[in-house]
Amino acid sequence: MLILGIETSCDETGAAVIEGEQNSNKVKLLSNVIASSLPLHSRSGGIIPENAAREQIKFIIPVINEAIQQCNNLPARLAAKRAGKAGLTIGDIDAIAATFGPGLIGSLLIGVETAKTLSYVWNKPLIPVNHLIGHIYANFIYSELNPKRYTLNANIEFPAIALIVSGGHTDLVLMKRHGSLNWLGGTRDDAAGEALDKIGRLLKLPYPGGPYIEQHAKKGDPNKYKFPRPMIGSKDFNFSFSGLKAAVFREVQTMKQPARRSLGEGGLDNETINDICASVQNAIIDVLVKKTLKAAVKYKAKSILLGGGVAANQSLRNEFELKIENLKLKIPLFVPEKRLCTDNAAMIGAAAFFNNQQTDWKKVDANPSLYF
Ligand code: KG4
Ligand code: ZN
Questions:
Q1: Residues 22/24/26/27 CA torsion (nearest 10 deg)
Q2: Which residues, by Cβ under 5 Å, contact ligand 2, an ion?
Q3: Each residue's pLDDT tens digit, 254-286
C-alpha cells in the first residue's frame, strides 16, 4: 500500500511517500520532502503564523510533486525503469494522509484542504492523522538507504511507552497496540523544546534554540549551574519547564551587570554560554529520562519510543541508553532517524498505514487544538 503523507501543522511543508506491507510492523520510506520557512522565522526569533501559512501556500504543490518524483530515484525503481517499466505516478498512490491537528490553524488548513481536494479529484481515500501520533510512528519507518536500524534492533513490541518531546508538546503515552493509546501525562506549561527555544533567544542564539543549545552544550560543563529539575519526583507523569526557564533567566540577569556588557551583544562570554547550555540541557534530560523510565517500569513496557524534534538531541538519546543499562531494565529503546524526529510527512504516512481510518473528505476539518 502506497500512502502520500502531507504535513503542514507548523512552519514546515512536508510531503512523503511510504510503502506499507500487510502484516509488517514497519513501513518503507520512498521519499521525504520538506520545505521550511525557518530562515524567515530565524530573523523574527519565532514563528509568525501568518508568514508561515503564506509560505506554505507557495510550497505545497511543488513539494507534493517532488515527493512523487523522488520515488523514482530509489535504486529499486531506477532498475525497474531501466527494464522499461513506467515510473511511479499519482495513479499508483493508494491513499492520501494529512495532519489535521494540533497546530497553527492557517498552516493546518493548507495541508488539510489540499489533501481533501486531491482526495476528491484523484478519487483516493483520505486518512486524517493526529500530528502527535505521527511523531510516535516515526519509529516504525525504515529507509532503503538506511536499513540498518531495523536489522540491528529488535522489533517494536507492545505495550510501549512513547515520549513525545517537541516544540509544542511533552507527553507520555502508553501504547497497548496500534490504535490504543492512553495519555499518561504531559507538560503543565512550556514544552521541553519551547523552553529550549526561549532560553536560546535569551542567550541570543538563532531560532529554534534547541539544536544550537546542543552544539554549545558539547563544549560546556553540565554541572556548572544547578538549575532546578521541576516535578522530577512527582508521583504523576506530568512535566513543567517554565520554572527552569525562569531560573535561567534570573541567573543570566544577575550576570549581565554593566561591567560585563562589553563582552558582547548578549553580555555573556562563550564559555558562560556553553556552561549554561550544558547545564540546562542536563536538567531537561534528567527529568525526561527519569519520568519516562518510571512509566516504562510501572506499565511493564516492552519498548520505549522517542519522538519529536527534541528526540534528535544526541545527549538525550545517550542518557536514555545509559540509564536503561545501569538500571538493567532490558527494554529496547527506539529512536527515529534524526531527520524524522522533527516535523515531516513520512511519519504522517506511517501513522495512517497502521491506523487506516479512511474518512470521507467532506467530514475532515482542521482542528488546531486536537489532543489524544
Ligand atoms: O517536532 P518539531 O519539529 O515541531 C513541533 O512539533 O514542535 O520540534 C521542534 C522542536 C524545537 O523546539 C527545537 O528547538 C527542538 O525541537 N529541537 C531540538 C533539537 N532539534 C530540534 N532540541 C534539542 N536538540 C536538538 N538537536
Ligand atoms: Zn511536531
A1: -30
A2: 166, 343
A3: 886 554 555 555 578 999 999 999 999 999 999
